[in-house]
Every structure is written in C-alpha cells, then in structure tokens.
C-alpha cells in the first residue's frame, strides 16, 4: 500500500500517530452516525482501530488511508477498502471526513483517487459501497461518482446494536471514466 496524492489531498497509509486526529472525528456523533462503529470516547479506541486495520492490510484483506490536506498538512479523515476479495476482483469502500471539512469536495476527490487505485493498482473489477438509506449526502456523492444503485438490503447489518437496511451501490471498472 502506497501513498496516493491528488491536487489537494494526500492519502497516506494509516499509522498510530494519526490516532489523535482520527479520534477527534470518530468521537463526533455527527461523523460516526452512519459508520459501523460506536462513537469513540477515548483515543485508545482509535489506536485499536488503526492497529486492527493495519493487521487486515498486512493480510491483504483491507487497506485504509488517512486523508490529509497537502498544504498545509492537516488530517481530515480516512478512506479505504474495508474488505478486499481478490479472488472475485471486488472490494467495498468506506470513508469519513471530519465535520469541519464537509462540503468542500474533499470526499469526492479522495474517493476518485481510491477508485483509481482500486481499478489500476489492485486490478479490481467491482467496487461496492453500502450506505444506510438516511445517509443522503453519501448517496448523492456515490451517484455523482457514477456508482449504480443496485437495491436495498433489508436488515442487512448490525449498526449500533440494531439491524439496519443498507443500499448497495457498485461501480464496475468498465463504467469508470476519470
């Protein structure tokens, strides 16, 4: 897993030193509302999450980057492949941004870089995203990025102690135009 840069952003492999900045976002109920984690209450939880993601990355099962502004350098969120299925050439993406950085086009820029990396370097054919139906900003973002809405998966996964519906989106390599 290597560093990825865009005009404004740097996606760098997640490391323990990023924990305080990521904790500041993952402890915000507005940011964690649609994430499959409970809102964090201690920076040690962020450290544990980073260690878990690093282990999954080493096993080739996932990879996660910290999103940072390039100038001036500032961590603003994270993104990556929450699940990699190399045999079937597919992956599931996930992303989050700190609330101060919403609405600036950073999520779109980071995800486009993630898609390029997935299709070009990982040789994926299909990239998926599962989104809770109430997460309208994320749904709009995926549609802008050419994802196809495939359908609603009823009571598909546990989130914060209850089964929730998710909408499955996908983007095929043959659909992707940069």
Any overview of this molecule?
With 178 residues, the protein is of the alpha+beta class. It has a domain at 4-127: Gcn5-related N-acetyltransferase (GNAT) (Aminopeptidase). 30% of the residues lie in helices and 35% in strands. It contains 5 helices and 8 strands; from the N terminus they run ββαααβββαβαββ. The protein has an 8-stranded mixed sheet with strand order 1-2-3-4-5-6-8-7, sandwiched between helices. A hairpin with a 4-residue loop joins strand 3 and strand 4. Helix 1 (19-26) crosses helix 3. The protein is globular and about 40 Å long. 29% of the residues are buried.
Binned strand content = 35-45%
What is the CATH homology-level superfamily of the domain at 4-127? Gcn5-related N-acetyltransferase (GNAT)
Our count of helices gives 5
Secondary-structure-based class equals alpha+beta
Give a nutshell description of this structure.
This protein is α+β, with helices and mostly antiparallel strands. The chain has five helices and eight strands; from the N terminus they run ββαααβββαβαββ. Helix 1 packs across helix 3.
Q: How do the helices and strands line up, and which of them pair or pack?
A:
Layout: E1 4-5, E2 9-13, H1 19-26, H2 29-32, H3 43-58, E3 63-69, E4 74-85, E5 90-97, H4 106-121, E6 126-131, H5 136-144, E7 148-159, E8 162-172
Parallel strand pairs: 5-6
Antiparallel strand pairs: 1-2, 2-3, 3-4, 4-5, 6-8, 7-8
Helix pairs in contact: 1-3
């Amino acid at each position: 897993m290597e560093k990825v840069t865009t005009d404004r952003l740097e996606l760098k492999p997640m490391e323990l030193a990023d924990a305080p900045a990521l904790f500041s976002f993952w402890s915000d109920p507005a940011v964690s509302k649609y994430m499959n984690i409970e809102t964090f209450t201690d920076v040690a939880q962020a450290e544990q999450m980073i260690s878990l993601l690093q282990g999954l990355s080493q096993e080739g099962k996932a990879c996660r980057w910290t999103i940072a502004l390039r100038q001036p350098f500032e961590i603003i969120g994270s993104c990556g492949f929450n699940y990699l299925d190399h045999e079937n050439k597919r992956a599931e993406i996930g992303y989050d941004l700190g609330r101060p950085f919403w609405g600036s086009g950073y999520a779109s820029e980071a995800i486009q870089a993630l898609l390029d990396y997935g299709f070009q370097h990982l040789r994926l054919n299909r990239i998926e995203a599962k989104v809770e139906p109430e997460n309208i900003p994320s749904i709009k973002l995926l549609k802008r990025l050419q994802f196809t809405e495939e359908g609603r998966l009823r009571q598909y996964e546990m989130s914060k102690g209850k089964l929730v519906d998710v909408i499955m989106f996908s983007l095929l390599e043959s659909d992707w135009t940069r």
